[in-house]
Amino acid sequence: MIRASTTAQASIVVLNTCTVTSGADQDARAAIRRVRRQNPNARIVVTGCYAQRAPQEVAALPGVDLVIGNSHKHQLAQIALAARREEWSVGPFVPLDALTLPYQSPIVDNERPTANGQRPVFVSDIFAHTELLAAPVFDAANERTRPNLKIQDGCDNRCSFCVIPYVRGQSRSLEMQRIIREVNTLVDAGYREVVISGINLGRWGRDLLQPPSQAGEAVSQRPTTNDQRLVSLIRAILAETTLEKLRISSVEPMDWSDDLISLVASSPRIAKHAHVPMQSGSDAELRRMHRKYRPWHYREKIEKIRAAMPDVAIGADVMVGFPGETDAEFEATLRMVEDLPFTYLHVFTYSPRPGTPAAEMKNQVPVHVARERNRILRELAAEKKLTFMRSFIGKTVEAITLNVVGRDAEGDFTEALTDNYLKLHLRGANQPNRWVKASITDVVSGTLAGDPSDALTVFEPRSLTPAAAAR
Ligand code: SF4
């Protein structure tokens, strides 16, 4: 089986879908239509969270040949490569409404036959998964120089707006030694930055046992030790690998412990980047969202992070238009964004997700009101980001060069990403996958512009292996 270079050449196209908002579902449907237009003969396999949440709906979409939920994603290649469609047997199917409440064991109907003519569907109870079924380590590297290593999946929280726990299942972690091996494999292949990620990354290790559990012990009653916390894992990665830069993706506010903050602040091998979901600055709204912190907790964490790392990138997810969101509640969010030193924001407009408590709440906010709030926050975020970027003019930053080289009025430039998560256009055509120092001269169209500084290389040069470079 060879990886096709274009959709038109593929015999099988796998679409990995998201369902976090109704917009994500729409995007998935548009992608299916686009692929079908570009290649009427390809078999289209739809997987991911939309496939897990609404398999029947996805199977009924014109152009879809096969639906594989997250529950069967680890078997995707095996199922999709079955030579003929008749060989695609039908797996057990569980609709979302059978997976309603947390900690309840859903009913799995293994026997239900699929109606004639329906596309084969492979979806089962995601809550039955107690281990992280890891994809290969090179998963998700759409930027070839910064692979993403998923070390945790699922979530035990139940934020009232969120469908993720229902499509990803309970929180589960990749074991520490496995992670060390995966990072070493990436380092050996020539990668210089690895991003560790998870659905609820700050909970990494809480499901792992130290010492091994008693038979039949519930996950929530299992003992955990400090050896199974994110901070210990990061220390182990630093000690047991020669990775040049580790980037930590989103971590919930309450998991930014003092230990974690000081570890990130103290190590030049950890990118100065903190993504801390906020959602709302209103206490009442956070409570309705079933978020586990209060606005003052959040404020305190962000202030500690900034105090420990003056140049750190601080990002947040913020939601507008949650059911019942009043003008005063939105104002509280706006004030929090104004007050805190965010360097970027992801602003989401709430959309009801079937099966979640918030979808049933009264006082859904009119779309035009939510959109306007979204616009206000985005504009504020853009101003804050620009101010942050301008603060680096005349300074030297560290950045990793990416694969893209472009040309503007002043000649060639190389795209790069700074340690603190800013886009940079580095003058000249530079080698990809190098940590370099750059002197910042300007900010142009939301991107830093700079020259390679005299002390160009931060770490010793190393090349990607041919296999890694070809990915
Ligand atoms: S913490 Fe809340 S928003 Fe995040 S994945 Fe879990 S339930 Fe969803």
Count of spatially separate domains:
4
- Estimate the helix proportion, in percent: 25-40%
What hetero molecules are bound to the protein chains? Answer: iron/sulfur cluster
Query: What would CATH call the class of the largest domain?
Result: Alpha Beta
Cα Rg: 23 Å
- N-to-C SSE string, H for helix and E for strand: EHEHHEHEEHEHEHEHEHHEHEHEEEEEH
Largest sheet: 5 strands, mixed, barrel
Structural class, by secondary structure, is alpha/beta
Instruction: Calculate the terminal CA-CA distance, rounded to whole Å.
Output: 15 Å
Mean pLDDT: 86
Note the overall shape: globular
List low-confidence stretches.
Answer: 89-115, 218-223
What's the arrangement of strands in the largest beta sheet? 12-13-14-16-15
CATH topology of the largest domain: Transcription Regulator spoIIAA
Strand elements, count: 16
Individual helix count: 13
Question: Architecture of the largest domain in CATH?
Answer: 2-Layer Sandwich
Q: Strand content of the residues, in percent?
A: 15-25%
